[in-house]
Amino acid sequence: MPINNYTYTPETAADFFAELSAAMRLLPDIAGVYSAFNRVFRKCIDRNTEAVSATLCGAFAKTDYLLKEHKAARSMARDINDTRVRLRKRGDMTADTLRAHCLQDLENLCRFISLLYNTPVPDDLRRLLPQHTDAEKTDDNTAGRTELPDYIRMIVERWDDEYVYGHADEPCGHDPLKVCYADTPTPSGYNWAYLRNLLGEGTQLNLVRPHCKEDIIVPELIIYEPDYLIDISAVSRCFTNYAESPLVNLISRLRPQQSTEHTILGNFAGQLLDETVVSCRPESPQNIQPTTSTPKPYADSVKDFFKTHAVELLTVGIAPEFHKNAKAQQKNISQSISNDLPGMVSRFNPTEGMVEPSFFSEMLGLQGRMDYLQLDFRVLLEQKSGKGDFPYEGFVVPRHKEEHYVQLLLYMLLIRYNYRDIYEQNNRELHAFLLYSRYSSSLLGLGFAPDLVFRAIRLRNELAWSEMQYTREGTFRRVLDTLTPERMNMKNVSNTLWEQYQKRQIAETLAPIHSATPLEKAYYYRFLTFIANEHIMSKLGNKTKENSGFASTWHDSPEEKRLAGNIYDNLTLLYPDATTDGSIATVTLQFHENAAGDMSNFRVGDVVILYPYAPGSEPDARRTMVFRSSIEKIQADNISLRLRAVQSDSRVFVRYSGKLWAIEHDFIEASYGSLYRGMHSFLSAPKARRDLLLLQREPEVDDTVTALRGDYGEFNDMALRVKRAKELFLIIGPPGTGKTSFGMLNTVKEELAEPASSVLLLSYTNRAVDEICSKLKAEGIDFIRVGSTLNCAPEYRDNLLSERACRCDNITELRRQTAEARVYVGTTTAFNSHIALLSLRQFSLAVIDEASQILEPHLIGLLSAHCNGVPAIRKTVLIGDHKQLPAVVQQSPDVSRVTDKQLNDILLTDCRLSLFERLLRRYRNDESVTFMLCRQGRMHHDIALFPNQAFYAGMLTEVPLPHQVAGLPETADSDSGIDRILRSHRMAFIAADAPEDSPSDKVNQIEADMIAATVKRIHDMEGDNFRPAETVGVIVPYRNQIAAIRSALDGYGIPALRAITIDTVERYQGSQRRYIIYGFTVSKYYQLKFLSDNVFMDSDGSVVDRKLNVAMTRAKEHLLIFGNPRLLARNHTFSRLIEFAKEHGCYFEDRKLFLQC
C-alpha cells in the first residue's frame, strides 16, 4: 500500500457513484437524499476545478466550465444545470416536488460524473434510472419559457461587436442567450460597447431588468462579475475633477492614510447626525410625528468621540476653531432633521428610520452604507461635512459635487432595483437628499440622473475588471511603472487645485516607485499581487477551502452554511421589544431549540451582519438592509450583539415582528487597505531598513555589550544575545518552551531596565495579546493596549487606549499619559489600522509573538514606519515556531510561489511564508541573532517523545516539572477499558473502525461515541478536581464532528461536560489541557490531503506535520488519539505515529473492551 505525505488521489468516479448509491438507500428521507446529492455534486465540481487557474465563483461557473471542457451536448448541459438549481433551492421545495425529480436528478448526476471521468455508470445505479424514449429527448430551448426575471446571471461564451452569447444560471426560456450590448444607447448616446474590452470567456454578467426583442435579450444594466461587490464610496471617489477612472482608486489605495482636522471633523459630524436622529422622540408612542428633539449635550458628544477616535486626535493638531465649527455643524444638522426636512417631506419621521444601514446587492455588484434611511424606504439622507462644489457663496446654500451626487444616485439605484417591490408599493416615492452640514441651509434634494448612473455603473464595472487584473503577475508593474500625474490628468485640467495640490499629491505617491531599485520593485510588486489575490479570494472564495469567500453568503444554501458553521438562523428577537424605551445599542436573539451551536464558527468579538427574513423562506442578506454588529456574548440559548450604529428606537427592530433573524460573518475591506499602504510605505522606509529586510546587509550586533541589568537565571544567555543585537533577533519557541513567559517577558524586562526605552508588543490574535497582557499584569508592568473592547479580555479593558481616553479630561492629559506609557500592546491588525501611532511614539524595541503565523505584508508597514528618517521601531525581536501552524493563506502554492530569481536570492520563494521563516532560513545558524528555546515544561516525557523525535530532531528536553516525570499507578485494574488505558499509559493510539453509513464524510459516529465515553470516564476519575477549562480538551478536524461529539456527551446528562472545549486544531494553538483527545475522524482516502495540508520538509531533513505537531503538544499529562489505522497508515507521518504506538505498547484495537465502562 503506498505511503504518501504530499499528494493524494482525489475521489474517483467509483467513490462518487458509491455515495449516490448510499444516498438512495436513505429513502424515504427525501431531504437526506438531496443533501447527499448536493454533497456529491459540490465535491465533484470542486475536485475537478482545483487546478484551474481561472477564477470560478460559485457552482454555476464551475459547472459551466466543466461542461464546456468536456464538450457536453446542449441538452445534457441544460439537464445538469436544472439539477444544480434544484440542489441549490431544495430548501424552498416541497418533499413531493423533490420526490418527483429524484430519479431524474440521480440520472443527471450519474451522467455528469460519467462525462467528467469518462467511465460508465455502474449497473446497480443504472437499474435505478428512469427509462426514456427518443421522443422524450429534446433540444427545445423555448421549453418552459416564462416571463423574464428582474435579472439574469449569465456566463459569457463568446461575443462580437453587437452581441454577447452565453448561458443563463437558471432556466429563463432563452438558451443559449443572445444579448445586445452595443446597440442599446441611453438618451445621451452612451452604450455598453466598452464591455468589449472587459469580456473574457467565462466572464459572469448580470443582465438587469432584461426584456426580449425577437429572442434577443436587451437589459437596462449590465453588471460585470457581480459577485465582486464594489463599495459605492469607492465608485464615487473615482469621479474627480481631473479623471474618471479606476486608476484614481489605485492611487488612493497606495497613498498613506493621513488623518487631518477635516477628516476628524467629518467623522465627528457623522456621529452628531446619528445622535440627532436618536434624540428625536415622539411625545407618546401613539404620536406618528416626532415633536421634540433634545440634542445630546455637546460635551457628552465630544467625550464619546474622544473615546473612539483617540489615536486620530493624538496625532493631529486640532485648531482652536474646531469646536466652533463642530457646534455650528451640530446646529445645522439639528435644524435640518427637526425643522427643514419635516417641512419638505410630510412623511418624514426620524424615529421610523435606520441609522447607517448597510446593504449587499449582488444584482448590481455593489455594497455600501447609507447615513440614514427611513424604514419605509421613502427618505434617504447622505451627509457631507465638507465643502460642496465651487463657488461656496458664504456656505449658506450648497452646490453638489459630482462624486457626492454619484454616491447618492447609486443608493437611489439600489432602492429602485434591489428593493423594487418596496419602491413600487411606495408609488415610486423616494426623497433623496445630500446634507451638507457645513452650510446653514444644509439640505439639497436631488432627482435621478440616468446618464450619470450609467457612467457610475461603467466605472463600477471597470473597477471590478481592474481588481481582477491586479491578481495577475506583472499587472501592477505594467500600470505603475509608467504612471505619472500627467497621465492621470485625463480631463486636461490646469486650475489651481490641480497644479498646486492634486498633481503634487499624485507625484509624491508615485515617486517612491519610480526611484526604487530593481530588487525593491520586484519585492513590492510581488507582494502587491499576493495581497490582491488574497483580497479577491476573500470576496469570491478559494479552491482550497469549501464555503469560502463573502460571495458564499448567497451562493451557499442555508444547510451548507450551517455545516460550515457560517450562519446562525431561525433566531427570534428577545431584546428590544415593544416596551423598550430609548435608543438601542445592543440586540439579543434566542437560538432555535434544535440549533447545533457547537458547529458554529463564531466567537465573541467577531464582526457580523444581522438581518430579518420571513419564516419558511431562505435567509438572504441581499433582500434586506443589514445591521452591522459585533458579537458581545454567546450563551447556551441566546446571543447578544453590539450594533455598529446605535438605533433611535426599538421600532427599527420590532417592526419585523413575526420574522426570524439570521447572523452571518461580515467582511471588512479596510483591513486590506492597510496592507496595500503598508507595502507602499516600504519604498519610503530608511534605506538601511529596506536593505535589512531584503537581506542586502547583515543585522548589526554590538559585541561590546557584556552585562545585563537583570538576572534571568537560565535565560541569561538568551537575554544577553538579544541585548547585543541592535536591529534584529529571532527566538524559536517550540511547544511548551515558554516563548511568551520567558522569551518575550525576559526580553521586555531587560529592555525596560534601560531608562529611556519603550516597547511595542505585537501578536496576530487577540487571544495571544490577552496572554501577553496577563504576563505584564503579573509582573506589575503598566501598558496601553490598542484595540476594541469586545476583542479584549475583561480583566485588561482598563488598559485600552479608548478607556484611558474616557478617564482624561482633555487631549493634553491623554497626550501626557500616552507619552509616559513605556509599553504598548496590540494585534498587528490593530496597529496597522492605527499606523499614525508610530509617528507619535517611537519604540526602542518591538517584540512580535506568533511571528511564524504572520504574513510578511502584515509586518512590513510597521517595520517601515519612520519619523524624519529614523525607524519608529529601532530593534525587532521575532518569536515563533515555523513547525507549528503557519499563517492562514487562501492562495494555493501554485499562485503564491515566487519564481523571480532576484527574489529567490533573498530567500523569498513563496509569499505564503512568514517573514520569520524567511529570516530564519538566512540566520538559522547565526547565534548572534538566533536562539532556540529547548526546555519544555508542558508535556510529560512520554507524550513529548514522538513529536520531539519526529519534528524537533530530539532537541527538546523536559524542565522537568513534577507532572512531566510523574509515574502512573502501579495497578491498572478496572472494569473499564478506558480506565486501564489512562492508568497505564500517558499516550495511547486507539483504533476506530470506519463507519459503514454516515450522513457526511465529516462525521464519524464511532469515534464520536468513543471520545464521549472517554471524556465521561475522565470526569468520573477526576471527581471534584474536574475543571472544564483545564482538565480535558478535544481536537477534531471538522465542525460536523464537534457537533456529533457534543451530542454524544449530552447523552450522559452531566452539565460539566457541556463546558469543555471541543474545537479544531487551528483554534487550539496556544492552549493546553491536562488531557487532550485527538480524533482524526476521517474515513476516506481523499481526506488525508486535508489532514496533512500543512506538511513541509525542514532544512534538517525532517518531515514536519504542523497540524499533528500542534495537536499532540497541547497535552500535559495524557494524550489519546483515535483514528482508523488502515487509512492513516497510507500517510508517511501517521504511519510512523502508529508504529511508534505499537513499539511502545500503547496501541489498542479492541473497541468492545475499550468501550466497557
Structure description:
It is a single chain. This protein is α/β, with parallel strands linked by helices and 1157 residues long. The chain folds into 6 domains: 13-136, no CATH class; 151-224, OB fold (Dihydrolipoamide Acetyltransferase, E2P) (Beta Barrel); 246-283 and 291-459, Lambda Exonuclease, Chain A; 571-665, Elongation Factor Tu (Ef-tu), domain 3 (Beta Barrel); 698-794 and 822-933, P-loop containing nucleotide triphosphate hydrolases (Rossmann fold, 3-Layer(aba) Sandwich); 941-1154, P-loop containing nucleotide triphosphate hydrolases (Rossmann fold), CATH 3.40.50.300. It has 47 helices and 42 strands. The strands form 11 sheets. Strands 26-27-25-28-31-24-32 form a 7-stranded parallel beta sheet, with helices on both faces. A hairpin with an 8-residue loop joins strand 18 (567-575) and strand 19. Helix 3 packs antiparallel against helix 4 (74-88), helix 4 packs across helix 5 (95-117) and helix 9 (261-279) crosses helix 12. Mean pLDDT is 92; it is low at 133-145 and 283-288.
